[in-house]
Fold this sequence. Notes:
The chain is mainly β. The chain has one domain. It is built from no helices and four strands. The radius of gyration is 12 Å and the shape is globular. 25% of the residues are buried.
Amino acid sequence: MARFKDTDRAHMPLTIRLEAGKYYWCRCGQTSTPPFCSGAHEGTGITPFEFEVDIASTKVICNCGLTKKPPNCDGSHTNY
């Protein structure tokens, strides 16, 4: 079962063009903006996974929350 609660597309990775900059991938599963952190982890002791994009590019980001290679999709969504 997907870890993110507020997504109806958890069975597929998110293919998205990201501009250069810092991003935060949710690790708590409570985000309202999956797969990115919305700050819902406050007070849980869980911190988001910070990653940086050096140049604007298209990325395949885990949208189920089960990847072992955050923030990248590793195909874990096919196992639930």
